[in-house]
Structures are given as structure tokens and as C-alpha cells.
Amino acid sequence: MKLVVQVKLAPDALQAPAIERTLHAANEAATWVSAVSFEHFRLKGSVRELRQLCYGKLKARGFGAQAAQHIIKRVADAYTTLRANIKAGNLGPEHSKRRRKAESKPVTFRPDAAHTYDDRCLSWNYDAQTVSIWTLDGRIRHVRFACSPGALKQLTEHRHGESDLIERGGKLFLVATIDVPEPEVFEPKGFIGVDRGITNLATTSDGDNHSGRRLGRYRRWQARKKAELQAKQTRSAKQLLKKRARRETRHATHINHKISKTVVAVAQRTERGIALEELGGIRERVTVPRDQRARQSSWPFHQLGAFIAYKARRAGVPFIEVDPAYTSQRCPRCGHTERANRRTRDHFHCRRCGLAGLADHVAGANIANRGATAWVFVNMPDPAPA
């Protein structure tokens, strides 16, 4: 399976300006290629067509052959992704403001956005923990990098493919692709259902509750601080707002990593699979009161599901997504489904058989049952030919 490892570059005073200038120039050139592509082909420019129009001019700007090819491919991939998002409805219906805005102008690239390097532009020396990297000022050798011993071991054993150079907060990083072999998925003895929510970030069918109460206090405090900074409208306040946004994102990612690691470890230890609700497009389908919109939209539910999915694959744990319809209103014992079964957010009480309990726990049990049923159908052997 494909994963990434991030390392921090530590260039000296002579190396850093050359690397930064190359990254900014590459993104400026990508924005120019994107404008050319939009002018001639709108959202449908291909690598071959853009190569004919832009390759020579990129070479004249000082980019090497591989760097020019990667810039062109980045632009083509960006438009491919945009078309896929439009087709999937991720940018809203046909005449929505968000979709019209995306279709009416070319894609642009930030000065610190990622630029791709392959093994002909970037080479690694794991023993010395240095890299040799191509820049507009020529090849720069012996650029030191820092990472954890575990990340270094993964790079040494499994690095395969391209790496991305990015700049974040004035610091340079390399994001390398590693190809880790996947263990064989075992046959599950049951399933753990995971119900994701806002008040309780994740509740399993075993009753384990990963509460968001402490996180809610943290985010409300951050919201108050952001409101104070937004009221100032100064340049330094805007810089602090960006810094706080990055800190909150890192915090959310850390929490999601902790939750997903715990869920996968329990499933692996008990030889069970993991079932999650398929929540694609939930922000468009579900409406909440005005005072709760920011809270619903800001927490990365998809990221938590993605972390559980890739950690499960890496551990050989069965993983499946199921239909989320009525999981919080259905009784897992008698199957009775009614909105009145859940009169409050926290409590469930079946009006037919009397089963009562925490609503998120009941939803997790329903998800686990659906996961076990779906797993049987997905892995059912093909019928014998007549």
C-alpha cells in the first residue's frame, strides 16, 4: 500500500535560498501553464497538448527537462481532479455559485505548494541523512534532513516513487512515497461498529466512547481568540489567524490518529473487522441550526474514516463501509425503526421491545450488524455455472 513519510530539510544559509527560489518559480510556472491550458482547452487540457504549447518556454525559463515535465503533469492532474469533483457533485449542482466559480477561472498554485521530484532530480543518502536536489542554480548536494528513526527505517526499506518538496511556515519539507507490503486480511470473527459524531467523535459497538468534550472546549476557546483577532484587521492579526488555523488542524489530525490507532488495535487483538458508516456528502445532505454550522463543518470526519481505513489495511484488519440510514433509530434487538425511538440526542429507547441505552452505542451496534452482513455478501464465492 502507498503511504507517505515527511522529513524536514535543514539546508544551510547558501542552500536554502536556492531551494526556495526553485519552489516558488516552479509554482509560478505552473500557474502560467494553467492559464495557457484554460485559454486553449478550458478544463480539458491533456499532458500531450500542454507539452506542445509550454515545454519549450519552460526550458527557456531555466527548468530542466524533468522539472518541466513535472510542472506540465501537475497542471493536467489538477484539471483532471477538478473535472472529477464536478462530475461527482462535490462542488454543488450545475448552477451553484461554488461550481460556477471553479469553472470560470484557471487553477492557480500557491508559491509554497508542493513540487514533484523523481529519482532523476532527487537522490537520498540514508546513512548520512542528506539529499541531493536539483534547483535552478544547479544540483545542490549534501542537504541535510531530519526525521524520526522509525521514519528513516521506512524510507530505507520501502521508499518508492516520487517525492514532493513543500514549504510550510518558512520551513522546507520533503514528502516521500513509500510502498509498504500489505498483510493478508484475516477472516473476522465479528465486527466492531464505529459511529462518528460531533459531541462524541467516535463510539464503538463495544461501548468505548471517544468523547469530544475536551476538544469542544479547546475549539470554543480557539473560536473566541479568532474572533478577537478578526476584529483587529491588522496584518499581524491575519498572520496570527493563519498560525492558529494550522495549529488547530494539527491538533485535529493528532486526535484522529489517536482514535483510529485505538480502534484498529482493539479489532486486531480480538480478530474482528471494522465497520464504518459511509458519510460521503453529509454536509450537503444534513442541515443543522445556524449556531452549529461551523462546528459541523470544521471537524474532519472524512479524515478519521480515512485514518481507520489505512491503518486497518496496514494491520490486515477487515474493513467495510455500510449504509448509514436509520442506524440511530433502529433497534438492534427487534429491528423496530422509528424516529420516536430516539427522542433525545443521547438516549435510545425502543417503543416496541423496550431496549434502552446510549444512542451512539446503539448506532455502533447497528453498524456492526450491517458490517457483518455486508462482509458475507461482498466475500460470497461466485455461483457455479449452470
Written description of the protein model:
The chain is built from eleven helices and 14 strands. The strands form three sheets. Strands 2-6-7-1-5-4-3 form a seven-stranded antiparallel beta sheet. Strands 10-9-8-11-12 form a five-stranded mixed beta sheet. The chain starts with a strand and ends in an 8-residue tail after the last helix. It is α+β, with helices and mostly antiparallel strands. Helix 1 (about 15-40) crosses helix 3 (about 65-90), helix 2 (about 45-60) runs antiparallel to helix 3 and helix 7 runs parallel beside helix 10. The longest helix has about 35 residues, at about 235-270.
> How is the largest sheet built, in terms of strand order?
2-6-7-1-5-4-3
Order of helices and strands: EHHHHEEEEHEEEEEHHEHHHEEEH
Uncertain residue ranges: none
Helical stretch tally: 11
Strand percentage: 15-25%
Main sheet overview: 7 strands, antiparallel
Q: What distance lies between the first and last C-alpha atoms, to the nearest angstrom?
A: 38 Å
**DSSP strand count:** 14
Average predicted local confidence, pLDDT: 88
Query: What would you call the shape?
Result: globular
Radius of gyration: 25 Å
The amount of helix comes to 40-55%
By helix and strand content, what is the structural category? Answer: alpha+beta
Question: TL;DR?
Answer:
It is built from eleven helices and 14 strands.
